[in-house]
Amino acid sequence: MRTVIDAPPAVQKRKKRLKTDYMLCAMLIPGSIYLIIFDFFPLFGLVIGFQDFQLAKGILGSKWVGLENFKYLFTMYPNFWRIVSNTVQIAALKLCFGFTAPIIVALMLHEVRHIRYKRTIQTLVYVPHFISWVILAGILRTMLDPSDGIVNYILNLLGHESVYFLGENSTFRGVLVVSDVWKGFGWGTIIYMAALTGIDPALYEAAIIDGAGRFKRMWHITLPGIMPFIILNLILSVPGILNAGFDQIFNLYNERVYKTADVLDTFIYRLGIVDAQYDLSTAIGLVKSAISAVLLVTSYKIANKFYDYKVF
Amino acid sequence: MKSKLTKLLALCFIASMLLTACTGGGETVNPSDKPTTSPQATEKPAETEDTLEEIDYWSRYDEPVTVRFAVLGAEDGFSWSDNIWTQAWKEQFNIETEIMWNTGTTEAYQTKFAMAMLTGDLPDYMYLTAGQFKQLYEAGHLADITEAYDKYIYPHLKQTVFEANEGMQDIAFIDGKRYGIATEGINNSYTRLIYIRKDYMEKVGAQVPKTTEELIELGKKFVDAGLAKYALPLIGKVTTEAYSDIRAIANGFGVYPGIWVDDGNGGMMYGSIDPKMEGVLNIYRDLYKQGYIDPTFPSAVGDNLTQQILNGEVGILTGEFWVATWPLPQLLDEEGKVVDWEIINVLPSENNTNHKYQAFGSPADTKFVAVRAGYEHPDAIMKLINHRHAMLDDPDMAITEFHSIKDENGNEIGNHMRCPIREYFNSPFTNQLTSPAVTEAIDTGNLDALVSPHDKLQYENVTNYLKAVEAGDIEGMNYGWAVYKLFYGEDSVFGLFHKNFTNNLYFWDLRDKTTENYERLWGTMQQYENTFYVNYISGSEDTTFAQFVQEWNDMGGELITYELNH
Questions:
Q1: Which residues of B make CB contacts under 8 Å with A?
Q2: Which residue of A has its CA nearest to B551?
Q3: Of the residues A10, A116, A184, B252, which has the maximum number of CB atoms within 10 A of its CB?
Q4: Are residues B341 and B470 in the same domain?
């Protein structure tokens, strides 16, 4: 007896969708090409991390040294672990303040009734986002200069001694975090404000009838309303915990604060770009990517489990 | 940005001063080897073929030949591919110039060149460090230029420059074949000098100090008297900053950071980890604590120091010779005259009985001119090198326009800096030979003392200065001050260098080779060294000097020291 074997229903369905959505599929092509050329193809270059890489000999001609580069970094290079710890600490501090600040500001602005006032504030806090770190760093360095900066001028007027903010290990991280939050919170605020407009006003009305005060409304309606965005933001931030902000630190730091401010990216820059040690810098880059990948998966799982958040 | 450019220009100006034929000194000269070209032949190059039949050096190609360059330097109001040099090359040799790329900074150049090495898309003419030379040779990217060199480099250049230093060219040979032309090795021109403002010395009633200790005291005095802001100048790169670093003071105490010195057991050790270095760092540390050193020095760059100098906040400088050409002449007093500085050798400390000056570079740091493997016309590149040397340094052939011309405002335009071949094929001792020649010519009136084009040029500059002094022409005085300070008299900068050199007072780098680990790790280790020094001086790190030495050894220092000693 012969049976006709049809394709399983799922495949049929997929085929049908391919037919109807071919335009959408075609639109995926340029993006995929981009990914393949710029994200997948370069993965090949990670091999450098395991080589005694010589420029002129190239990837194919250089000597394979196995884990030597990693060994050098982990065991021989002084302060490598300090750099790792700096990275995590700075990124964690920034995440801590930089993540909560926009939520708080957005919630506060949400309560403001005066539309023009609200818009003005919204725009003003958003402006620093558009200034690049190169410029901002120049401004900061001038403002914080120990001999003729305005901040120290004010401190002096108040009878306080000048502080070399960018040169003291005790103050440098503070400057990093404050300036980073100041630059970034406007952008985050806008995103949360957009999310806030999506909350059904009927909920508020119902809550008011039920006698909920401002705080209760915020706690029970506003916050749960934007929770998916908060979670999304958090998920997107956690894997970046090893990105402590190259642009910012690079433009502000100096050798005197390496102790507290030297992070993986600035180290990679000095090793790879300044010193052309592509093998060592690739090795660190690889370690960094591996850790980020683990963090990404973990944070996604957590979000998935506790908040039922799904991307895939 | 602007002042960075000025600095670059200043450096180029200095480079121009370094050029010359080295026929003045005697040791490296063989006057009979001058080419048999008539002066007229070089002035109208295109017409010279017939008269020069027997020599091939200046002949023209029938078909145009293209040479590709990668150039370090921005095109600031001129073109690398179309200027007096490239036009002359086209006319004389039928050689066309193609600029593959050019960059504004050394860092960008090195990055781009690294990429070129990686992709193999190399220029035809290359100027390489010893490490790059080795890597490119091993990868088969360098052309064998044995024949091209022997046949096409003309005798004057060959014998007075390239083969003048015995053994210098040997390192360009691999298995009996020549793969490059060694151009730059050890050099005493970068020795540190001490600059002291004369008017400040008068104001505090001080004499020129005799020891390093006195110098430091003088620096403090300037600050205490409210004249200078800081006692000693210091910026971020504390041991490698040519503008002003700690080497001048270290050398006074018999410490030579950055070079390899005798370890006392017949071997060599790295000068920066010399136990005596701790004492030098402690001096700076104390000065820093007392507020005598710029608190922002770790992040300070050359521009900051320049600003301090021009604000009159600096009384003492400890840099290389070019500081005299820039920025010092830009600092004017109330009458508009250049502020005068006392320029002296590094001073010994009170207990230093064997005082010597630090020379720079080692034979292992030699630079190479090389040709890309597979390039069809290595001979064309040899001809361009001949031309570059002849137009600037050959006493019989040099043409002033190739060095510089004056624009309508009387400002000098350095044509020598606009050549796609940026290297100067002359002796590193050029300036030191010019100084005694110029001094003799002025003092005795014997113009025969002037041999090279450079001698004549500087003689003219110094006499113009002296005339301006006599006539009270302030502009002329300001213009000539630097040249006067550099070249005239036994105690001029190059007079001092010449004297030190003849009296054998230099401390030379002992490192004579490079190793794989050296090439691989040295840059990282140097960065680390600087970080430690900065943090030690500013007291922001608790690492002791002994701990630093241990760390330095662990990160590869021990290994490299062993390799270099065996």
A1: 107, 110-111, 114, 117-118, 120, 132, 135-136, 138-139, 141, 236, 295-296, 298-299, 516, 520, 523-524, 527-528, 530-531, 534-535, 538, 540-541, 551, 554-556
A2: A78
A3: B252
A4: no
* Beta strands, E only, A49-197: 51-52, 63-64
Give B393-449 pLDDT, tens digit per residue. 888 888 888 988 878 876 778 898 899 999 888 877 888 999 999 999 999 999 999
The count of structural domains within chain A is 2
Determine, for residues B540 and A256 on separate chains, whether the beta-carbon distance falls below 8 Å: yes
Rounded to a whole number of angstroms, the distance from the CA of A263 to the nearest CA of chain B is 14
Identify whether residues A40 and A131 lie together within a single domain.
Answer: no
A44, A64, A84: which is the final residue of a domain?
A: A64
Q: Are residues A124 and A272 in the same domain?
A: yes
Q: Which of B520, B538, B555 sits opposite A78 (nearest CB)?
A: B555
Token duo for residue B404: 């510089």
Question: How many contacts (CB atoms, under 8 Å) link A and B?
Answer: 92
| Contacts of A142 by beta carbon, 8 Å cutoff, 6+ apart | A149
- Residues B254 and B269: their CA atoms lie apart, in Å, by 14
Which of B128, B294, B299, B545 is best to mutate for the A interface (most A CBs within 10 A)? B299
Chain A residues in contact with B136 (beta carbon < 8 A): 56
Taking residues B215-236, report their average pLDDT: 95
The DSSP bridge partners found for residue B67 are B97
- Angle subtended by helix axes A278-307 and A223-237, to nearest 10: 160
**A169 lies in some domain:** yes
Find the mean pLDDT for residues B267-286: 95
User: Does A273 contact B111 at a Cβ distance shorter than 8 Å?
Assistant: yes
| A192-229 per-position pLDDT tens digit | 988 888 888 899 999 999 988 888 988 899 988 888 88
Q: Which of A21, A47, A64 is the last residue of a domain?
A: A64
Q: d(Cα B338, Cα B328) in Å, to the nearest integer?
A: 8
* Spatial separation of the C-alpha atoms in residues A23 and B164, rounded to whole Å: 74
Buried b (16+ CB within 10 A) or exposed e, B422-444: bbbbbbbbbbbbbbbbbbbbbee
What is the model's pLDDT at position A3?
Answer: 55
Angle at B412 between CA B408 and CA B415, to 5 degrees: 110
Contact call for B298 and A167, based on CB within 8 A: yes
Total structural domains within chain B? 3
Same domain, B116 and B200: no
Contact between chains at B541 and A273 (C-beta distance less than 8 A) = no
Contact of B452 with B395, CB cutoff 8 Å = yes
Mean pLDDT of chain B, nearest integer: 86
Domain that includes residue A238, residue range: 72-307
Picking from A50, A184, A168, the residue whose alpha carbon sits closest to that of residue A128 is A184
Asked if B218 contacts B209 with a C-beta cutoff of 8 angstroms, the reply is yes
Is B126 part of a structural domain of the chain? yes
Query: Can you tell me the distance from the alpha carbon of B5 to that of B8, in angstroms, rounded to the nearest whole number?
Result: 5
Same domain, A57 and A84: no
- Please tell me the distance from the alpha carbon of residue B106 to that of residue B466, in angstroms, as a whole number: 38
For A5-53, the pLDDT digits (tens) are 666 666 777 777 778 888 888 999 999 999 999 989 988 889 999 998 8
Same domain, B11 and B84: yes
pLDDT at position B24, please? 31
- For A161, the token pair is 């001694």
Compare CB distances from A167 to B111, B295, B551 and report the shortest one's residue: B295
Domain interval for residue B371:
2-185+363-418
Beta strands in B61-153 (DSSP E): 65-72, 95-103, 125-128
Query: According to the model, what pLDDT value does residue B182 have?
Result: 87
A282 and A181, same structural domain? yes
Pick from A54, A146, A164: CB nearest B135: A54
